[in-house]
Amino acid sequence: MTNLYRWPLRLASLAACLLFWQLAANARLDLGLFTFTYVPTPAAVLDAAWQLAHSSKLLPHLASSLSRVFAGYLAAALLGVLLGLLIGRSKWAEDSLLPPLEVLRPIPAVAWIPLAILMFPSSELSMVFITFTGALFPILLNTVHGVEAVDPRLIASARSLGAGRLAILREVILPGAAPSIVTGLAIGMGTSWFCLVTAEMISGQFGIGYYTWESYVVQNYADIVVGMLLIGLLGMGSSALVKRLGALATPWYHARRNAR
């Protein structure tokens, strides 16, 4: 019931933002640092969204973006968790693998695009690679953090009871690190969308990012906002899906947190 009482405030906050947007766009508000002179009204954006929903362009754009995101994300999830478990459990792996990964981690998605185009034979693979790089590092670092945060006394207790390395990994390390891994997976999904849109703006022919950039080029300002909102909704929905699946996979953690 507590969450139920919070919804009116959330809806009121959203309504206040929409009202300010409508008034500022209608008045073509100019605040000096930024201006609403060319910003479309919510009504214009809603009309543009309606037109897109009833056109033949929406499904190809959605299918292209979703396939690229999930291909890159799934590869990053698999590699990120495996590397994170290895680095978190092995000092040798930490010393040999983590330093080059830390050098690559701050490089933004835009900087990867020229190299990705040179490395891969198709623009499709290069865009998947960019979503992969965006998701990899949050997943990797959160997995490493989760593994390192497991209480050493639990590992020692399992070892004293005769558990081998695989048993300790399966029964102690993975359950202990799972909440951190789920957090990394949710963050990685969001960064996948961010990186994909950047790639599609430069090398795509279909996709929500390409649609948004094309709308800017032809000066369809309402369509720009539609593309932005689509990206936000898809990113929010896919991250929520990852969190939900993570909650189902770690019932002990959420039961303990709810009991506090």
TrEMBL record:
<dbReference type="InterPro" id="IPR035906">
    <property type="entry name" value="MetI-like_sf"/>
</dbReference>
<dbReference type="Pfam" id="PF00528">
    <property type="entry name" value="BPD_transp_1"/>
</dbReference>
<feature type="transmembrane region" description="Helical">
    <location>
        <begin position="70"/>
        <end position="88"/>
    </location>
</feature>
<keyword id="KW-1003">Cell membrane</keyword>
<keyword id="KW-0812">Transmembrane</keyword>
<feature type="transmembrane region" description="Helical">
    <location>
        <begin position="221"/>
        <end position="242"/>
    </location>
</feature>
<feature type="transmembrane region" description="Helical">
    <location>
        <begin position="109"/>
        <end position="132"/>
    </location>
</feature>
<keyword id="KW-0472">Membrane</keyword>
<feature type="domain" description="ABC transmembrane type-1">
    <location>
        <begin position="62"/>
        <end position="242"/>
    </location>
</feature>
<comment type="similarity">
    <text>Belongs to the binding-protein-dependent transport system permease family.</text>
</comment>
<dbReference type="InterPro" id="IPR000515">
    <property type="entry name" value="MetI-like"/>
</dbReference>
<keyword id="KW-0813">Transport</keyword>
<protein>
    <submittedName>
        <fullName>ABC transporter permease</fullName>
    </submittedName>
</protein>
<keyword id="KW-1133">Transmembrane helix</keyword>
